[in-house]
Amino acid sequence: MAGRRTNLALLGFAVMALLTGIGAFLVGTASGRLIVIAHGVVALAIIVVMPWKGMIARRGIARVRPGRAMSIALTVVTLGVIATGVVLVTGMAESIGPMTTMQLHVSLGLLMVSLILVHTLQRPVPFRRADWSRRNLLRAGGVLAAAGGLWLAVEGLLDAAGARGGARRFTGSHEIVDPAQVPITQWLNDRVQHLDRVAHHVVVGDQSMTVATLEGGGDVVEATLDCTGGWYSTQPWSGTRLDRVLEGLAGESIVVRSASGYWRRFPFDQASSLLLATHMTGEPLSDGHGGPVRLVAPGRRGYWWVKWVASVEVDDRPSWWQPPLPTA
Question: What is the CA radius of gyration of the chain?
């Protein structure tokens, strides 16, 4: 594969990996499994192309010229993305140093895409009409087909070996069965809130509800908390369904806010599927797990499960009126 075509292929695969990676964070139901599979296939396509890129890199590194350090950095970061991806898929380690494996993988992935863009600007590879020739498209399809075959082989091997990675959920997350082992995680710069279970109130419209009132609701939901950190756990959660506390109110969407300032917006007609939970597996929620009150949102990833709920508001704006992923 010629150097120019290799560089263009890597650029295309890197962009696809970024888009499917973001899409994988949005997936909450099995219908989105193809996005996660696509992310894995594209990642393997990058590995398939690496031998050709390695020859180009060796020639480039041997010559002292501007951008040499950038090429070396890109090579190292790309290898880091691949290595952390392997650790994630196999489930070999939940953390590497002070970071979770997923955090490190995502951070290196974003850095890799940034370095590729800088590298492309330093050494631009202009597109030509010939790049879209039938032959080149067949080559790209061949690489993706090989990557797809490799993906099936890896999945089959993990399953046959009984490895932890063979039992991953459709999102790629690994199961945690013991509720005592459920990690304490926050989205980006959110911080654990320490609220008084007796004094804390949740404001809903013009009423203020105590934790005792919510825990007396008697609603129990078995739901799967699937964290973008790479793990999931299915547990029984108890408290009060959101449609009960919103009775008599109407609007387009529901905004659930945390005492930390974090928030998420939901369609109003999904209120009956949402739960203001005060207990998990019959035990009061700890501060780290969102106590005294957190939202349980079945079918949605963990960042939708607002912790330390302080208020529930009904709004006339549509439910999509928010960033697809929280920004803080």
Answer: 23
193 HSE (CA, 13 A, CB side): 22
Angle between helices 134-160 and 33-62 (to 10 degrees): 110
pTM for the full model? Answer: 0.86
| Cβ contact 54:106 at 8 Å | no
pLDDT digit string, tens, across residues 140-171: 888 899 999 999 999 999 999 888 888 899 99
Residue 134 and residue 146: Cα distance in Å, rounded? 18
pLDDT tens-place string over residues 93-105: 888 888 889 989 9
Nearest to 187 by CA among 100, 89, 313, 58: 100
**Alpha helices by DSSP H, the chain:** 3-26, 33-62, 68-90, 101-122, 134-160, 211-215, 242-245
Task: Give the SS3 label for residue 261.
Answer: coil
